[in-house]
Amino acid sequence: MRGPAPVLGWAPQGLPNAGDSLATRALELYRHRDPSLAAALQAGLDTEKMATQGGMSDDAKKNKGGMDQPGGMRQAAAGAARLLAAPDGPRVAALAFDGWDTHQNEGAGTGQLATRLSGLDGAFEELEKASAKAGKTRLS
To answer: Structural domain boundaries of the chain?
Structure first.
């Protein structure tokens, strides 16, 4: 990507969540030692908060699987949808899902390909629900 427009990335956390105090302590340290790193960490924390807001339960915030699994695909799409719906959120989002190179064990209704397509369907459903809630009628 080129040009002056700011770009950010977000993906559901795959590691156990650290306590809020860790982020606060790291941010305070960076503010005194490396203001640029502090700004980047603050932007990341703000993005995470925006992507996971909306009354999500602790269980809903837990990692639902990789980007090649239906739960992970749905979770990433829901987070992206919340970012897009936010008044100060981005105008464009790109989602990347893994695991489409399925040369074996594809299966009919339960194999790898069916799993990926199910996840993709769930991701589209999350985007549609969020866009309707935000008053946007069309996904491109």
So the answer is: 20-52, 57-96+104-140
